[in-house]
Prior knowledge:
The complex is a heterotrimer.
Chain A: H1 2-35, E1 38-39, E2 49-50, H2 54-61, H3 63-95, H4 101-109, H5 116-127, H6 134-141, H7 149-152, H8 154-179, H9 183-191, H10 196-223, H11 228-232, H12 245-255, H13 259-284
Antiparallel strand pairs in A: 1-2
Chain B: H1 7-35, H2 39-42, H3 55-63, H4 67-97, H5 103-115, H6 122-132, H7 138-162, H8 166-174, H9 179-208, H10 212-215, H11 224-229, H12 239-259, H13 261-268
Chain C: E1 4-13, E2 16-26, E3 31-35, H1 42-50, E4 57-62, E5 65-66, E6 77-80, H2 92-103, H3 107-120, H4 136-148, E7 154-158, H5 166-183, E8 186-191, H6 194-200, E9 203-208, E10 211-216, H7 218-223, H8 228-233, E11 240-242, H9 244-248, E12 254-257, E13 262-265, E14 271-280, E15 284-290, E16 297-303, E17 313-318, E18 324-326
Helix pairs in contact in C: 2-3, 2-4
Amino acid sequence: MATRQTQGLARLMRAPAIILLFVWMIVPLGMTLYYSFLNYNMLNPGMTSWAGWFNYRYFYTDPAFLESIRNTLVLVGGVLAVTVVGGIFIAMLIDKPIWGQGIVRILVISPFFVMPPVAALIWKNMIMHPSYGVLADVAKFFGAQPVDWFAQYPLTSIILIVAWQWLPFATLILLTSLQSLDTEQMEAAEMDGAPAYARFLYLVLPHMARAITVVILIQTIFLLGIYAEILVTTNGGPGSASTNLTFLIYKAARLNFDIGGAAAGGIIAVVLANIVAIFLMRAVGRNLD
Amino acid sequence: MARATSRNARIGWTVAAWLVALLIFFPILYTIVTSLKTEQEAIAGFDLIPSFTLESYATVQSQNNYWRPFTNSVILSVGSTLLALIVAIPAAWAMAFSPTKRTRDILMWMLSTKMMPAVAVLVPIYLIFLRTGLMDTRIGLTILLMLINLPIVVWMLYTYFREIPGEILEAARMDGATLRDEILYVLTPMAIPGIASTLLLNIILAWNEAFWTIQLTTTNAAPLSAFIASFSSPQGLFWAKLSAASVMAIAPILVLGWFSQKQLVRGLTFGAVK
Amino acid sequence: MGQITLQGVAKRFGEVEVIPPLDLTIEDGEFVVFVGPSGCGKSTLLRLIAGLEDVSGGRILIDGADATDASPAKRGLAMVFQSYALYPHMSVRKNIAFPMKMAGVPKPEQDRRIEAAARALNLTNYLDRRPGQLSGGQRQRVAIGRAIVREPAAFLFDEPLSNLDAALRVGMRLEISELHNRLKTTMIYVTHDQVEAMTMADKIVVLQAGRIEQVGSPLDLYHRPRNVFVAGFIGSPRMNLFGGAAAAEYGAQTIGVRPEHIRISAEGGKWKGRVGVSEHLGSDSFFYVEGTGLAETVTVRSGGEIALHHGDTVWLTPDEGKIHTFDRNGDRI
Lengths: 289, 274, 333
């Protein structure tokens, strides 16, 4: 029968994607795990030996490690806070009956399509540069001392840049959700005597809960891996003030050629990502499905 | 609200919205403006009116061999997306039209592979690329980007395919269509819009990818993202040139992005928000 | 030709038995309506006949030939779906032509049949539009057109009118009935609306929980419902069902009296009550009488305009010859 015949075909059609992804997931991860127990430096490949837990202990006792974990969490949390709050605000603004809504949308969404290195360079040189940046011009205009952003507030500066990139995403998703809000529901609430803030609190926010959840989930996935923005602006510094876990591992692998150490860091990153994922799923999972 | 808003309120909201929008767009706008200045103008303080010189664009193209990374970006983003589609269309198709009890689990598992931090596999991928001679080659990077975006492509296609109502397939079957006819005359035409927006969105994602492209290329296969990252220390003199290079790197995708903003939401949220 | 016979046809989804084995014969040219509350298995039964679901047991014969394992296309049946299931990317013409294209009907013959169907269904001016540009009623017609051109052995309709508004529904009901009169092809029609069943069917099949409760002509079902379920389901407004002493008086567990078989009077009668809500439609009046001790409310239908108002005391008298009696199992005595 038709149904039975298609089952076999369906299995055949699914197989390539599943096999590819399975291999892609398991092989490199297995290799990382293996390397993480080796003393393996690319500058000294002949000296490779079994290291046991050394790499992990080394990584853990490195003061830069705990700082990088802290930076990673601050970076993710900071960007999420700015984009979600800002996104709600801007989405509600665009949803008002304004002239030129289409163009406003296009302007607001644009930063999302700017590739990370370009975004970082624009902000670093055009906006935040202590002598030639627009913010310096503004400071001079008011007679104030220009701020050397990346030296004084490295992590905050990076949060600002990344938030600028992701604000459009949050805005667009929240706007889509807002536009699907039943106007009759709002009118009913108005008839019931609910003032604007109550309508926002009891109707708009709960309606957007699902969209907010999605924004948090998806952004977190991407934000844990922030790399290019750090590379072209602060290069992780000063010291390790703006080094997140991704960047720390990159430095171990590519600048110190410490394969074993970087692999151990990679495994730690996987564990961290899983903890965050489980935590997130628990916290926000209720809003999905 | 459906009811007419007073004119004054509308003017107020419009001004506020435009101010916010322009503020957000400002860095891009100012980069475009700066790219049309001479280097002297570019560091001469804040000024929104450039001299409209294309000098910097010409310099970037001649001195830095702009076309090589541009071509690489096109090849990598389009190539990896097409490859991903070839693998993902049958898979998404099968999962949408003959789902099994495990389909949901498989989809969730695919999504979970996206949660794996890229940096966790930096070491093995880097070593594999070094040893197999894939380092700094277009083919190696194309395959890698394909694997990275495959889960998203499958998911997006799946959500699009799922929206094709089952009754239509049954109607086709009642009308005497064979499996081949069904795919050729009914499913494919209905699936094309979804495939097109998946294609568009993943070209954007691949174009903007900036971890692996920087790690695994030097000059030969470096796309625009890696090319631009190498500009990280222009130190004073090259403001206009940097702006021109930036504009050229983002312009194509910015325009594509404007066209795809509707699909963007459902695509990137895997159909959870429409 | 289109005689369809079901022999012990059953359907299980996993452990759940949706349709216990049942037998049914649908004669050639009959208009049969499957009716029942939602979830009673009527749509599943239709899909089994169509071949869209595999039977779990039993046989399906079409014109005497075993079609149990035949693919939907090979059964020679046409189906009109609840959502119409039009191909959104094809024009109306292409939609109607699709089954003929699949069957390899020559082009000139295709055009002839499309023209004929379009004329019959008032679609001539819309042939080049897409389904998305049509109203609900027009889409419905296209779906029917797509079914007609195949010249099937039987038409299957799955709640085809449920997405239309009330006025259109009445119109389409008449059109489908006319179509049947003209084509004289077997039609199987699924609905939960007993008015549609009563007005259109030659034969009604009442289903509940996958079981056939009764098969018969509309008036058969109306006059001689086989059990309490059918009695309550067929007829609008519903039949009044009383238990207790009122029923015991007739030697039954339950008695049923249709609203039109109760006389209402301000002077005197068998049961005393008080007028609750009354509805005056001009041609008819409906009274919902409370406080009779028989049931929460008793529905009474009365011709013309009777001057009774909320709170008036009234007497009700059943038409003794029209009382239905049911035993302990709910079966007709």
